[in-house]
């Protein structure tokens, strides 16, 4: 039985990335949105606790997230409706001593 994936992910990730993913989704929630991962965009860091990387994807308002999730999970043909183009952005991380933050642009 396949383990359920966290919302916004297509593949299972390791625990250190999932710790970072939680930070990404917490920031998305502050924008009343959910972030859906398309790809990593380098700027990687790995510590004993966390794997962080700038991420490209869609920052989808929560009221559209269920609709988008269906398209996102059926991504086999590598296309998502262009009506979601305006929601595509980069999630960039920043490290402050032992904590990480994320911003969307």
Features:
6 strands; alpha+beta; two-stranded antiparallel ribbon; 2 helices
Structure description:
This protein is of the alpha+beta class and 105 residues long. The protein is 27% helix and 32% strand. The chain has two helices and six strands, in the order αββββαββ. A four-stranded antiparallel β-sheet has the order 1-4-5-6. Strand 2 (45-46) and strand 3 form a beta hairpin. The longest helix has 16 residues, at 15-30. The model has no long low-confidence stretch (mean pLDDT 90).
SSE map:
Layout: H1 15-30, E1 33-40, E2 45-46, E3 51-52, E4 55-61, H2 62-73, E5 88-96, E6 99-104
Antiparallel strand pairs: 1-4, 2-3, 4-5, 5-6
Mean pLDDT: 90
Helix content: 25-40%
Order of strands, main sheet, comes to 1-4-5-6
Helix/strand order: HEEEEHEE
- Sheet of most strands: 4 strands, antiparallel
Radius of gyration (Å)? 14 Å
N-C termini distance: 37 Å
Low-confidence stretches: none
Would you report the number of β strands?
A: 6
Briefly note the structural class of the backbone: alpha+beta
Strand fraction equals: 25-35%
Summarize the structure.
The chain has helices at residues 15-30, 62-73; strands at residues 33-40, 45-46, 51-52, 55-61, 88-96, 99-104.
């Amino acid at each position: 039985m396949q383990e359920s994936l966290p919302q916004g992910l297509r593949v299972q990730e390791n625990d250190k990335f999932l710790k970072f993913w939680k930070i990404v989704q917490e920031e998305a929630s502050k924008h009343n949105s959910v972030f859906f991962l398309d790809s990593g965009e380098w700027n990687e860091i790995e510590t004993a606790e966390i794997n962080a990387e700038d991420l490209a994807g869609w920052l989808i308002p929560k009221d559209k997230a269920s609709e988008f999730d269906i398209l996102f999970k059926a991504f086999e043909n590598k296309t998502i409706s262009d009506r979601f183009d305006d929601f595509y952005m980069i999630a960039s991380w920043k490290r402050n001593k032992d904590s990480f933050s994320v911003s969307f642009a």
